[in-house]
Design goal:
Length: 572
């Protein structure tokens, strides 16, 4: 009894007396509408006197924080200076599939990629990382990842901290495994070193006022249970894809790989104090990567897991050292934020069930995989779903394995309808692109596949990167509509297609709007894409159909700021 009391006292004291050693690195920023990113095979010093081989983007480790404004058309040049092929995916952004940077959009060594897209997302925190099939974990764990901050007018109208590096801070959480020579090892069950923004044992000076943190779980597998020392209250204001309707007061925030959360902490009156941010992983139920036992049931184990001191423990993530407040500080937590209007379940026209299972049954496989979705492992050349443009759908994720999986889908943000039959907690009622599906539970979400259709597929997958690399991934295409329903129509005479019908197999596109086209896809009457190509058009463009049979087709023209669908007829 006395001993327990003593241990508890010691734990409290050690949290209070602990003094973090290293100033938190704050990633550089890039803003405007033209962005240059170069991915390097480089090095970084995590430990004094050791040089660690890393991947970095315009830096030795991680990449710059990109600032985008909703409504802007941005152009990004990504240079791959690695000796390996890679891709860069804009996680959470609603962009056309050929701009999304999935596994099909290779960037070969010593070459570049040049996506252009309009920012359509709400103000929130997104991120970017490589997505080459079977190499996402390697490339991301080596350090090729960065944060994206989208701003919009609704967010700008609120009294929120938004001075980057002053009262608004990015916190990229990662746990990693280093070998004796301090080189990164990607066998992640040994990920016992915690870092934030690439800094081990970091402290950050924060002003004595309301401060905003943008938390990103960029770890390969680990789930965190974030909380402040002494159970100090904080407020979640944003989920993956946007602000919440109102701040949610909380003392614990569960953050799974791929998820983001914006939180406010009120440090008013705490000048001179040190407050630690911890992961209270001892409180996790079994079945999360990070809890004492990663298996919700059965007797499987993960190699290296039980020896990893972070698992099932309450550990420090970083330390906030409160200093004097700034000029014009934010001192109150807003009462409400933005209007969040979830899609109503009655508007769904299609439901799908995705079942997670191990490829082979057995206690070890239930925990380690390889896992599959609906009995299928990822195949680059298999389209798992063809989704009609504009569809509102409900997807039910059924986890039949022994461990929780963070499910992520590209293209869209979704709204969680239920978690194992119950309404989601308030902080998960906003826009989401990752949801943690606990072992033996189901999650249902609703989403709409609007704005983009093309023959390039989008991905959905588990965001535990070794699971994704092992094939716990699938892909869908959004098939184009057969009528002109684009949300941003151009004037009829700004884009003319003639002759129509055409008898010699070629059409001419003419008009001012032609210069805004970056991509043309053509579907046949069944919605199947029969032609897709990037274009660099001036005011005229010729479409040649060497061998398409007679019939009605729809031409889908997309650019960063418009979408247009037109019917054409081919007569042979
Ligand atoms: Cu963050 Cu498909 O990934
Ligand atoms: Cu993504
Ligand atoms: Cu998984």
């Amino acid at each position: 009894m006395k001993k327990n009391l003593f241990a508890a006292l010691l734990a409290v004291l050690s949290f209070q007396q602990y003094r973090a050693q290293n100033p938190l690195a704050i990633p550089d920023t890039l803003s405007g509408t033209n962005f240059n990113l170069s991915i390097y095979d480089t090095s970084h010093v995590f430990y004094p006197n050791f040089t660690t081989q890393t991947f970095g983007i315009n830096a030795g480790y991680l990449g710059p924080t990109l600032f985008f404004n909703r409504g802007d058309s941005v152009e990004i040049t990504v240079n791959n200076m690695l000796s390996d092929t890679t891709t860069i995916h804009w996680h959470g952004l609603h962009v056309a599939s050929y701009n999304d940077g999935g596994p099909h959009t290779y960037i070969l060594p010593s070459s570049g990629w040049n996506p252009k897209f309009k920012i359509r997302d709400c103000a929130s925190t997104f991120w970017y990382h490589p997505h080459l099939h079977m190499k996402t974990n390697l490339h991301a764990t080596k350090g090729a990842a960065g944060m994206i901050i989208v701003r919009d007018s609704a967010e700008a109208a609120l009294v929120l901290p938004r001075k980057y590096g002053t009262d608004d801070f990015p916190l990229v959480l990662q746990s990693k495994h280093f070998d004796a020579a301090k080189q990164i090892v990607t066998e992640t069950a040994y990920d016992s070193v915690m870092m934030v923004n690439g800094t081990i044992d970091p402290y950050l000076q924060v002003p004595a006022q309301v401060v905003r943190f943008r938390l990103l779980n960029a770890s390969s597998e680990r789930v965190y249970n974030c909380g402040l020392q002494g159970n100090m209250v904080f407020y979640q204001v944003g989920s993956d894809g946007g602000l919440l309707a109102a701040p949610v007061s909380m003392t614990r925030l569960r953050l799974a790989p791929g998820e983001r959360a914006e939180i406010l902490v009120d440090f008013s009156g705490l000048n001179g104090q040190n407050i630690n941010l911890l992961s209270f992983s001892s409180e996790f139920p079994n079945g999360y990567y990070g809890s004492a036992n990663p298996a919700a049931m059965g007797n499987g184990t993960i190699a290296g897991y039980s020896a990893n001191a972070l698992n099932g423990a309450d550990f420090n993530i970083m330390q906030f050292q409160v200093v004097a407040s700034t000029a014009n500080p934010v001192t109150t937590i807003p009462v409400s934020l933005v209007t969040v209007t979830p899609l109503s379940s009655s508007s769904s026209v299609q439901s799908r069930t995705l079942t997670f299972e191990p490829q082979n049954m057995g206690p070890s496989q239930m925990l380690n995989g390889p896992f599959e979705i609906n009995n299928a492992t990822f195949m680059m050349n298999v389209i798992n779903y063809t989704i009609p443009f504009g569809n509102i759908e409900t997807w039910t994720l059924s986890n039949q394995t022994a461990i929780a999986h963070p499910f992520h889908i590209h293209d869209v943000q979704f709204y969680i309808l239920d978690i194992n039959g119950s309404a989601p907690p308030a902080n998960q009622q906003g826009r989401k692109d990752v949801v943690l599906v606990p072992a033996q539970q189901t999650v249902t979400f609703i989403t709409q596949f609007d704005d983009f259709c093309d023959s390039v597929p989008y991905m959905y997958h588990c965001h535990m990167l070794p699971h994704e690399d092992d094939g716990m991934m699938g892909q869908f295409i959004v098939s184009c509509p057969s009528v002109s329903t684009g949300p941003e129509q151009v004037e009829a005479d700004a884009l003319v297609i003639f002759p129509n019908p055409a008898t010699d197999g070629h059409f001419i596109l003419q008009g001012e709007a032609v210069g805004r086209i970056e991509r043309i896809a053509v579907s046949d009457i069944s919605g199947r894409i029969v032609y897709a190509s990037p274009v660099q058009a001036g005011n005229t463009y010729e479409l040649h159909f060497g061998n398409l049979p007679s019939g009605l087709y729809t031409v889908h023209m997309t650019g960063p700021d418009f979408i247009q669908h037109r019917k054409i007829q081919l007569i042979r």
